[in-house]
Amino acid sequence: MARPSSGSWPAALAGRRLPVRRRCAMERSNTAVAVPQVAHSHLAHLEPDERIRGTYRIHSMQMRRRSDGANFWEVTLADRTGILVTYAWPEQLEIAYPWPRHTRVQVECLTRRFGQKQVADLRSLDPLPEMEPRQGLDLLPRPLCPRPEVLDRFVSLVQGLKNPALRGFVDHVLARDETTLNLLVVPASQVYHHAYFGGLLEHSVEVAEIALRLPYPDDTQREIALVASLFHDIGKTRTFDRSLRRTPAGNLVCHDHLTLEICAPGLSWLDMVWPEGGLLLRHVWTAGHSRHGPLPQSALLHAVRLADRLSAEQAKDQAAFARSSPGQSWGRIGRETRWRASAF
To answer: Where are the beta strands (DSSP E) in the chain?
Structure first.
């Protein structure tokens, strides 16, 4: 597949001479995911006296009372870079009731300095029931993530994708709130590895970073391994809830099967523009798990599973020896016993 040097995934793919069926699919896809008229302004990078119009998430809404007795709303917005406190004054904007946390909203406001803080005065605030696929990465709410530096690593890995088809797949997966919000919070397991708030995101990033260090024949294979690593456990966003408890789905359905279900919109889109990529992602996630299923037929599968196992085992060692003395060779995590060589 040709590697575009720049541009978004639809524009980059448009440069290829696709078969008629796939060109028609791209035309339908481009219509469904039109670019917003105003670019997203990241909240952490705003300047005073800047008029912005963009899409963000509600982090909190509180009604306040001014000295003259009039009520106004303090609305805290969030995106992947941070938060911004905004104010809805009754003379400029009427809001009847607070909206739920993490609601997607289209905002127009004017920034200003208030003491040492950056704030903004709202001009409009409208809920968005649907999210464009390309907005998913920017709308990951940073305040929800227990370890924001891990979120930065995740964003960096996604933004580093040069393959426009794979980037389009990622955008479609991240367009679902149930997936993206849980991805930032839920654990990777209940006991053995990354068993804490935000553990799944950290484990996914670790697997991708380990996989990237392995040798590949070309950039296409490397980036498929990266995407497969980032989403290999995405099914766990439905097997655990945000209180670290296992869900009914987690007791009844294998998370590998849920991974395919969650990624189905992205895989369906990928099937239209690059079927081979969609097949290889499915193969990496599923082959070899069943005695009667297909055997592993790609080195990428072994690369991703090696990285997965290494991330999990290193986390087990870290947890087992967290309270051990430097010279102690044995540790325990759950029912497992761990061993390491003492310092020479």
So the answer is: 51-65, 71-78, 83-88, 104-114, 117-127, 330-333, 336-339
